[in-house]
Amino acid sequence: MENKSNFFLKINSSREYWEQRYSMGGTSGAGSYDKLAEFKAEVINSFMKNYQINSVIEFGCGDGNQLSMFDFPSYIGLDVSRTAIKLCIERFKYDKSKSFFLYDSICYKDNHAIFKADLAISLDVLYHLVEDNIFELYMNHLFESAERYVIIYASNFNSKQTNHIKHRQFSIWIDNNLSNWKLIDIIKNKYPNESLADFFIYQNIEND
């Protein structure tokens, strides 16, 4: 079992937290395994089929366990942790449909739309972005990368920061900053006693 208490030593940023966590043998967390991961896979695989999604980009691919449950024809995975990216590269080294890149929100500007897909996804990430400026950069990059839809799986209420978690009512930020995106569905968690996250599905009203 992971000794999570060690992960909080000398942590100055969300990036450092996740790199230290993975480098010490930690995983993406309970939400990326077992029944919570299966629930997320059911929702997203169904969405892929129903909306004829051909390409996906994920901001926060983690250790790749959740990814292994998805049916994606073309996929780009980004993560702030070098260790996580290396894990994914090794795990999916024979899968030519998947590409992986290290993500640094401060050093990311995609004017040529290199990182673009029908669907952009963010799963169990937002409440781990404890820095306000990093949260805003991340949200802009997430939505800029999506041609048609964005799926966010996260909590949606404000709370004070505790260790590496800060819950945010992100839907208000989207309403105030991204006028071309419309919330079209909310899918409540199948296991509300085990996770505070729900699915929020946004559509680009300019492209669809």
From TrEMBL:
InterPro entries, per database record: SAM-dependent_MTases_sf
Keyword vocabulary terms for this entry: Methyltransferase, Transferase
GO biological-process terms attached to the record: methylation
Superkingdom classification of source: Bacteria
GO-annotated molecular function: methyltransferase activity
Protein name, as recorded: Methyltransferase domain protein
